[in-house]
Amino acid sequence: MGEDLRYHIRIYDPEKVGKYVLLPGDRGRVKRIAKYLENAEVVADNREYFTMTGYLNGEKVSVMSTGMGAPCISIGVEELKTLGVHTFIRIGTTGALQKNLKLGDSIIPTAAIRGDGTMDYYLPKSFPAVGHFDVISALKEAAGIIGNPHHLGVVLSTDSYYGRFFNTKKAAEDMDLFVRANTLAIEMEVSALYVLGNIYNLRTGAIITIREELGEDGEYKKQAGEEYENGLEKSIQIAIKAVELLIEKDKNIK
Question: What are the residue boundaries of the Nucleoside phosphorylase domain, all occurrences included (predicted)?
C-alpha cells in the first residue's frame, strides 16, 4: 500500500476542490472568505486544514486554512497539487517593518527572504522565493479596483514568532539589514508557498494585511483593532477579485 498523498487535508475526490485555492492561515477565516463564493460548502476538516468549496463566475474555487508557518502550508500545497490545483493565493497577516505602513494596509509580496527552514530541505537558500507574475499582476489590478492602500515588494518569512526576544543581538543585526534594504514586513508562510510554486510550476501569490504598525521608535505601537479588520476584509475582496480576473484570463486563453 502506497503513501496516502492527501493524509493531512483529507480530500480524496478531485471534484471536491477547485483548481484555484485561497489559503488563509486561520481556520476561523475560511467562512469569512467563502461567503464571497456561491453555494460554498464544507468539503473537509482535519487538523489545521479546514476546506470549503464554492463557485466564482461559474468556476469551482476553494478556501483552505493552513495553520501557522512554512511546514504547515507546504504540506497543504503538496497535497492539494496532487488534486490538480494550479493556482494558490495566500490571504494572511503581517507585522510592518517600515514606518509608512499602516494598520489595514495590504501588501502584495513580489518575493520573500527565505528565513524559514522548511524550504532548505528542498533547495539551498540561493534559490529565490518569487511569486508568479500572473498572480501578482492580478492582485495588483484587483487592489486598484477594490481601493485599499497597498504596497508591492519583498517580505521576510521566518519560522519563529517569538525568537527575536531570545536571540536579541543576532536578530537585531539581521532585522536592521532587512529594514535598511526596504523589506516591507515579516510573516511566516510566503517563502514556502513561492518556492513550491517554482518547483512544481504552480501559480502562486499572496496578499497580507498589516496587523502590527510601527511607531517612530521602531517598536510596534498599534496592533489589530478596527482598522486592521477593515483592511483584512478589503484584502479578502482583493484576493477574490484577483481570482475572478485570473479565471477570465484563463477562459480567454482556452
Answer: 19-242
CA distances from 2 to 173, 231, 236 (A): 47, 45, 38
Confidence band for 164, pLDDT divided at 50, 70 and 90: low
Instruction: Give a yes or no: residue 6 inside a domain.
Output: no
Query: In the chain, how many domains are there?
Result: 1
Q: Is residue 174 part of a domain?
A: yes
Domain contains 7:
no
Q: Where residue 111 sits, what CATH number does that domain have?
A: 3.40.50.1580
Q: What is the mean pLDDT of residues 195-214?
A: 97
Residue range(s) defining the domain that contains residue 52: 14-253
Query: Does the residue 4 lie in any domain?
Result: no
Dmax over CA atoms of the chain, in Å, equals 59
